[in-house]
């Protein structure tokens, strides 16, 4: 009997040795024997039991699901501890199981399910059914997420971007899933759209250059130039976020999935009637909508705008910024100068609605009219005088004074001086007005010598005796008779034989209106008298002496 018992014991011992004992560091199956003090006591077989905290059986944020009799997989960390119990972990078993599953999903490029359960620097932690992954902030959504609260704890799909089992790193993305489903949705919506189609959309976002309109899962761009036929400075003038609008699909780019939309295309094009409504030369009232360096845009009606070029803004203000002549929103009268239907351009004129101030001046100030104005500018060739109608007239150096050189006379004037002048010429085409200051009192020389011609005999008064001749005066005009012209007789060519105040008959040898001088000569008068006497009383060849002839002439003169 004893022998039999020994044999049985040996057989049992051998049997126990032959049985595979579980390897430490592997996942084994066990049965829940009891639940006490927040722990589950699990029999992992081979006469080994271990304890696992109940929280290891729970998903983040959920209650543990475990009951006596349940079969579970646990990770055997050590076969026996100081208390003779197996050291086991449900969490580590789940992790090993999860890593195997995730590596397969990663290799097959498949989505995995998980739940965001915590926030860490730069992103969030995600439980992928036992393995913890990192979700970067940029991978949470297509657009930046301000509040991730509603996403926490939700079971949802993720895409594995990167994993390293040795280091225990997994990086996942929620955005990749959203983009994929969004791309599918976009493709479906775009597939149902066609160019020229009218659709409804909701204004999603407004920028300076336009608005993004949601067409039901796909966004289209409504450019600011396609919102209305008229000029729109900013889309917010017409649209508000959240507003439902009707738009026309202008263009669909199949490759980039970009959709261009238009609103004005659903309205009548005002340009179809422009040529008939705004004939050339007609005058209309418009509103200044925009001012640039080169001119001002004037709206004639909604959608029809014309440009008043800076050169057509004012008759007189030539080098002035358009903003100094008109202001935005100002109502102005303009004339239609040109229409280019193909380029949708209207050229307008502002100055054409007012009369040319040079024409007006020419009508109201004929030549010889006296005017008064302020010296606006002094240049090397004359003075510029401000006149009525915001125009200038010019007094040339040569028109400043009868007596002084222009260069000297101009020194008498200062900017801001009020001066009088006479209009001497108005050239409307060249926009020039010539004035004369010296002509104010009339032309004394012309008046004095009005009836005097070359060869005339006039009486002058001696005003000064000089070595080279005598100074004389005729009707207030001074002249000088040189010594050689004082007599035909050389012995009589002495200035001292004359006295100041003497009256002398002289012959006019020259009338120079430029230098305003009379050429006078006593000698020429004597020669002319002799010639006349000879013609009347016979020639000197007939034997009569000159004295006889002159005597006869003098007697007949008595």
UniProtKB/TrEMBL annotation:
Cited SUPFAM superfamilies: Nucleic acid-binding proteins (SSF50249)
Keyword annotations of the record: Repeat, Ribonucleoprotein, Ribosomal protein, RNA-binding
Top-level taxon of origin: Bacteria
Pfam families: S1
Record GO terms (molecular function): mRNA binding; structural constituent of ribosome
Domain S1 motif: 25-91, 109-175, 196-264, 281-351, 368-438, 455-523
Function as written in the Swiss-Prot or TrEMBL entry: Binds mRNA; thus facilitating recognition of the initiation point. It is needed to translate mRNA with a short Shine-Dalgarno (SD) purine-rich sequence.
Family: Belongs to the bacterial ribosomal protein bS1 family.
Protein name, UniProt field: 30S ribosomal protein S1
């Amino acid at each position: 009997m004893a022998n039999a018992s020994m044999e049985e014991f040996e057989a049992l011992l051998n049997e126990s040795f032959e049985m595979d004992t579980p390897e430490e560091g592997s996942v084994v199956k066990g049965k829940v024997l009891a639940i006490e003090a927040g722990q589950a006591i699990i029999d992992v077989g081979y006469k080994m039991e271990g304890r696992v905290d109940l929280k290891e059986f729970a998903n983040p944020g959920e209650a543990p699901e475990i009951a006596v009799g349940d079969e579970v997989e646990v990770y055997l960390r050590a076969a026996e501890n100081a208390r003779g119990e197996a050291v086991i972990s449900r969490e580590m078993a789940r992790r090993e199981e999860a890593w195997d599953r995730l590596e397969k999903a990663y290799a097959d490029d498949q989505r995995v399910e998980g739940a965001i359960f915590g926030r860490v620097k730069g992103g969030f932690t995600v439980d992928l059914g036992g393995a913890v992954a990192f979700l970067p902030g940029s991978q949470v959504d297509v657009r930046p997420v301000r509040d991730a609260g509603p996403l926490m704890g939700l079971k949802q799909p993720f895409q594995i971007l990167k994993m390293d089992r040795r280091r225990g790193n997994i990086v996942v993305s929620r955005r990749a899933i959203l983009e994929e489903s969004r791309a599918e949705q976009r493709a479906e919506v775009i597939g149902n759209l066609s160019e020229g189609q009218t659709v409804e959309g909701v204004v999603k976002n407004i920028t300076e250059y336009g608005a993004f309109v949601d067409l039901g899962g796909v966004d289209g761009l409504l450019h600011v130039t396609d919102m209305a036929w008229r000029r729109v400075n900013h889309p917010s003038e017409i649209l508000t976020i959240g507003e439902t609008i009707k738009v026309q699909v202008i263009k669909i780019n199949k490759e980039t999935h970009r959709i261009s939309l238009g609103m004005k295309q659903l309205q009548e094009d005002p340009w179809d009637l422009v040529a008939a409504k705004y004939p050339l030369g007609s005058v209309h009232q418009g509103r200044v909508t925009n001012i640039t360096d080169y001119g001002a845009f004037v709206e004639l009606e909604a959608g029809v705008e014309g440009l008043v070029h800076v050169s057509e803004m004012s008759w007189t203000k030539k080098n002035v910024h358009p903003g100094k002549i008109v202001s935005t929103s100002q109502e102005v009268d303009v004339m239609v100068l040109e229409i280019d239907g193909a380029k949708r351009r209207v050229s307008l004129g502002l100055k054409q609605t007012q009369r040319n101030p040079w024409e007006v001046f020419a009508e109201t100030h004929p030549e010889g009219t006296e005017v008064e104005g302020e010296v606006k500018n002094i240049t090397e060739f004359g003075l510029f005088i401000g006149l009525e109608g915001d125009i200038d007239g010019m007094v040339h150096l040569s028109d400043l004074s009868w007596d002084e050189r222009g260069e000297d006379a101009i020194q008498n004037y200062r900017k801001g001086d009020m001066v009088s002048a006479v209009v001497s010429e108005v050239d409307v085409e060249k926009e020039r007005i010539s004035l004369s200051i010296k002509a104010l009192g009339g032309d004394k020389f012309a008046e004095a010598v009005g009836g005097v011609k070359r060869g005339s005999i006039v009486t002058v008064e001696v005003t000064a005796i000089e070595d080279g001749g005598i100074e004389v005066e005729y009707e207030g005009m001074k002249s000088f008779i040189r010594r050689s012209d004082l007599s035909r007789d050389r012995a009589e060519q002495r200035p001292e034989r004359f006295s100041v105040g003497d009256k002398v008959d002289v012959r006019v040898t020259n009338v120079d209106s430029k230098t305003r001088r009379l050429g006078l000569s006593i000698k020429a008068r004597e020669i002319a008298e002799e010639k006349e006497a000879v013609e009347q009383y016979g020639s000197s060849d007939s034997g009569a002496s000159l004295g006889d002839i002159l005597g006869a002439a003098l007697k007949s003169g008595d």
